[in-house]
Amino acid sequence: LGSLNCVEWSLLPPATEEMVARAEQLKGRFHGDPSFEYECTEINAEDAERLFEGGKELMIKEESRLVATIEQIDRAVGIIPRGAFVKTPLGSVHENRNFEGLSLTEAKKLSSYFHFTEPVNLKDKTLLEKADLDPSTDFLDSLEHDIPPGSWTVQLEKGDTVVVLRSLLWLGLTFYHVPMTKQYGYVYFGTGEKNLDLPFML
Q1: Which regions span the lipid bilayer (predicted)?
Q2: pTM score, whole prediction
């Protein structure tokens, strides 16, 4: 949802692959005006020719950039605890009604959290590595294999009763989980800019 006055809210359009690709080329902060147009200057000649032939301008509105950025953040840092969702033998994914939360010991490990998107690294694992995985719960990519290593911080808060994960790649993304309960979630309060200096900071 989007709003200009925090009173009236409307649905944002869905993000397309083209919108995400064009938004990734933009740098700098948002202006706060959905109709503001960015000029895509760093676009390769092939894409420029295709867009020109299709009658499309080499511009992207801030509303489209916002939608694409939200999609990027969800793909990169939308996460769930291990066991919160299960995959059936037929391949469908459902919320696990028996999930009662991670133990405190497990909740402190990055390997207990998964990206809630189509797996990429899982397909590259060897049969020997896959033998240790439970296909009903370990069907997504774990955070422990994120690149660059060290792009997540794990902290205990409120007297060791809440585990908090923070992304150093998308500064402002905070995930929480209360061990031994079904409570978990994440929120993003940031500038919408990826921390491209992270590899040099680690």
Answers
A1: none
A2: 0.79
H-state helical runs in the chain:
17-23, 45-53, 62-77, 104-107, 127-131, 198-201
**Is residue 109 domain-shared with residue 63, that is, in the same domain?**
no
Q: Over the stretch 54-94, which tens digit does the pLDDT of each residue have?
A: 545 567 888 888 899 988 888 888 899 999 999 888 888 89
Domain that holds residue 72: 17-76
Tell me, yes or no, whether 159 and 90 share the same domain: yes
CA-closest candidate to residue 82, choices 120, 129, 118, 136: 136
Q: Binning pLDDT at 50, 70 and 90, where does residue 183 land? A: very high
Q: Are residues 195 and 134 in the same domain?
A: yes
β-sheet bridge partners, residue 113:
81
